[in-house]
Amino acid sequence: MKTKNYILILLIAFSCTMCNSSKKEDIVSTEVSKQDNDKHPVLSPADSLKMVNHQIEVKGDVEFPLQLTVDSLKKMKVVTIDDFKVVCQSGEVKKDDKICKGVLLKDILEKAKIRQNGHKDRNFYIVARASDDYKATFSWAEIFNNPTGENTFILFEENGKPVKNGEMIAICKNDIKTGPRHVYWLKSLEVYKVK
Ligand SMILES: Nc1nc2c(c(=O)[nH]1)N[C@H]1C(S)=C(S)[C@@H](COP(=O)(O)O)O[C@H]1N2
Ligand SMILES: [Mo]
Fold first, then answer.
1. Nearest atom in ligand 1 to 132's CA
2. Whose alpha carbon is nearest atom 8 of ligand 1?
3. May I ask the CATH architecture of the domain 45-193?
């Protein structure tokens, strides 16, 4: 009887060490993939030119899908944004614009008209996606029921010149670190309902 218990305890102890070692491996592997994701690939001028879109698509759960160019944005209500800094999550200042021009994301979404089924149907999220598949996410409440809605823009001009890295950039001036939701090479604005 005693030996049986002893073997049982040994077995339990052994399986516990196995669990721990596999957990450690998991942590190591996610750390490695995180590092890879953080790397900023340096593209050749030709490759970065391939990332440029002349129009952005507004699609998903909208009544009027749109294809917007810089010219079509200029025909909407253009706003001027002063002193916009792009700050990476690391704290590094990546860009310091004295003046930019753009259109409110809110105005674009109102034009495309989110397909809402009654006033309680407001659990939507909006993905600003770039050609390199970099993306940022906004929520319906942030844009339509929060001051962030008055601070989220699609830019087409920086310091009196067309924007670099594509023709349009999504930004959120309200963010603490503005780098993450600064989406250059912008390709689409996608509206989805939370399932
Ligand atoms: N399309 C695209 N937009 C992007 C990124 C990216 O990799 N691709 N990097 C983001 C990050 S991490 C930061 S800090 C800012 C500034 O990045 P930059 O240093 O490449 O200008 O842009 C953001 N927008
Ligand atoms: Mo960043």
1. 1
2. 134
3. Alpha-Beta Complex (3.90)
Q: Is 170 in the pocket of ligand 1 (CB under 6 A)?
A: no
Query: Measuring from atom 4 of ligand 1, which residue has the nearest CA?
Result: 183
C-beta of 88 in contact with ligand 1 (< 6 A): yes
* Token couple for 39: 């790397």
Question: In this structure, which residue's CA is closest to atom 11 in ligand 1?
Answer: 179
What is the chain's pLDDT, residue by residue, as a tens digit (195 residues)?
A: 454 554 434 334 445 344 444 444 444 444 444 455 666 778 888 999 999 999 999 999 999 999 999 999 999 999 999 999 999 999 999 999 999 999 999 999 999 999 999 999 999 999 999 999 999 999 999 999 999 999 999 999 999 999 999 999 999 999 999 999 999 999 999 999 999
According to DSSP, the residues that pair with 171 across neighbouring strands are 153
The preferred substitution site among 38, 183, 185 for testing ligand 1, maximizing ligand atoms within 8 Å of CB, is 183
